[in-house]
Amino acid sequence: MQSDNALKFYIDGQWVMPSGAGRMDVINPANEQPFMQIATGSTEDADLAVQAAFEAFPTFSQTSKSERLELLRNVLRCYNDRYEDIAQAVTRELGAPLKFSREAQAWAGQIHLESTIAALEAFSFDEHNGSSMITWEPIGVCALITPWNWPLNQIVCKVAPALAAGCTVVLKPSELAPLSAMIFAEVLEEAGVPKGVFNLINGTGPVVGQYLAGHPRVDMVSFTGSTRAGIIVAKTAAETVKRVAQELGGKSANIMLADADLEDAVIKGVEACFSNSGQSCDAPTRLLVPAERHAEALGIAKRVAADTRVGDPLSEDVDMGPVISQQQFDKIQALIGVGVDEGAILVAGGLGKPEGLDIGYYVKPTIFGGVTPEMTIAREEIFGPVLSIIPYDTEADAVQIANDSIYGLAAYVQGGILERARAVARQLRAGAVYVNYAPWDTHAPFGGYKQSGNGREYSHWGIRDFMEVKGIVGWGT
Known about the structure:
This protein is an alpha/beta fold. It has helices at residues 43-60, 65-81, 83-94, 98-122, 151-165, 179-191, 205-214, 227-238, 262-274, 294-307, 326-341, 376-379, 395-403, 418-427, 459-465; strands spanning 9-11, 14-16, 23-28, 33-39, 126-129, 132-138, 141-145, 168-172, 198-200, 220-224, 243-247, 253-256, 286-290, 345-348, 366-369, 386-392, 407-408, 410-414, 432-435, 449-450, 453-454, 467-472.
């Protein structure tokens, strides 16, 4: 699956050639071969996209709630028509197993559209407060900078609420996984999004992303990516005092309470860590178990790792594909090496590629035991299929270890007594806490504490993040 518009940008309602001749190969991580080229944009292209969004804002911001609902319903219908194309694109650009691309990656975009539509249907833009009117208004032109690991999830959970709020947008997707974003742009075109309301340009973060973050006609930047890049975006945006919403890194703890069903909880915890080849910012990568059951947990985890099938993402018989790039593979290998050097117990996996997979950025599903909180693998985001199992003595120790991190995106608690698990969940410094592997909920807020970011995405939380609050005093009752 390849978009006919690979060398073009979508600006002001049409596919246009870029201003320069920059090109970049897009690599299939399963075979390390380029499968398409994209144009890489310049500041001139970014100016054109921002100008189109700026000119479209006065009209689009005044559209009615019913008009924006109709637009989003059209987007959902067209998205569903291209669903298989989107899934196939994600498998090629990311290396996700095709089954996973269909059931999780493409589905994430679909469910965010459905959740945003439901939220907008119930959303109230005006609220009386005494003799004043409190009104929610779209913030303006929004630059949306999205990552490669969950392309549709992060694109749609930004674009859909921004449009629902009445904003106009410029999307810069990751240059590593741009194909699904181009198909999404074709979806919006087919759905009849007015010209200038949605714009897409490709390019690198240092050139296009950073320029958008500092652009004087951009009113808000919504960024998902690494904490390091998020700091650069925030510093750049500060010059024009624009709003910055960030969803950044994570090192999420998964606490097994003493009364948890250890067998079931560890199995599900390992599988959750390995999902998407470990490339999820909220992955439960620190598994905390009672010290007296540490050896038992290692045995369970080792079995799960041995049963995890790694291979060609087009095969129906694999659980895990490659990681995204050579750079990512090298980073993961280096951190696995550090784990060994620092004395963690290598329970499964380790350095090198899985047997028989010499081509492709494949990583062995790796388990470390006996990890202590100060070890590098317990503190740094690895962003690969590497799990650290950390023993703890008391419940209070588990909470302290879980919270002893610069990150606070997500946390997980497993326990037999729900009230006890809830009490622990309340003590965890994270934006989202999942109790007993509760299903993902796109109606709950998503975002981080500490260096995992600020702002909240999903459903009405996402819509509000793209709005300003105005108080009209003297409105009357």
